[in-house]
Amino acid sequence: MSIVTLVSGGLDSTLVALLARDEGLEQYPLFVDYGQRAKDKELSACRAVLARLGLPEPKVAELSGFGSLIRSGLTDPTMRVLEDAFTPGRNLLFLLLASAYAVQRGADAVSIGLLHEDVSLFPDQTNAFLVQAEVMLSMSMGRKIRVIAPLAEFHKIDVVALAQEKGIVGTYSCHLGNDEACGACIACNEFKFEEA
Questions:
Q1: Which of 63, 66, 128, 174 has the most other CB atoms within 10 Å of its CB?
Q2: Do residues 86 and 71 make contact, with C-beta atoms less than 8 angstroms apart?
Q3: Does the keyword Acetylation apply (predicted)?
Q4: Residue 194: what pLDDT?
């Protein structure tokens, strides 16, 4: 089986790519530039960590105009990164791009690093969303495309533990894109909640 792995340079997506590698899957990593504030840091971390893990360099889908049009705290520095974090359509956009790329590469599936549903903050992070997305994507691609969320039963504490066990280092998960993690965005707060 071959798979398009959505990668962001963060811990979750890096673990998804490593798990696919460990299963012996041929994979095509895909990084989406959707106009996110942290793009430069994310992409730099993504390239470096995938190289360290012996994984292919990610292809980059350059769609920064999405973030100009669909504003949120993740794309617009004038908005609040925590309170205004929901970016409508973002995960569907990711899956649509990954599915189209999968068709081009002859891959069977796409994977996304969503965690356990009980920590989902937005409607496009749920199991119901993934099931419906798979139906719609398969229909729009003209063939079956599986949508896989290998971490769907994981909480962040589980991801951190498994990533440490597998030696993953050098990821970047802050939504602001600064050299030092802000400690206040959703990505940073996930680590705090799990430590509590």
A1: 174
A2: no
A3: no
A4: 43
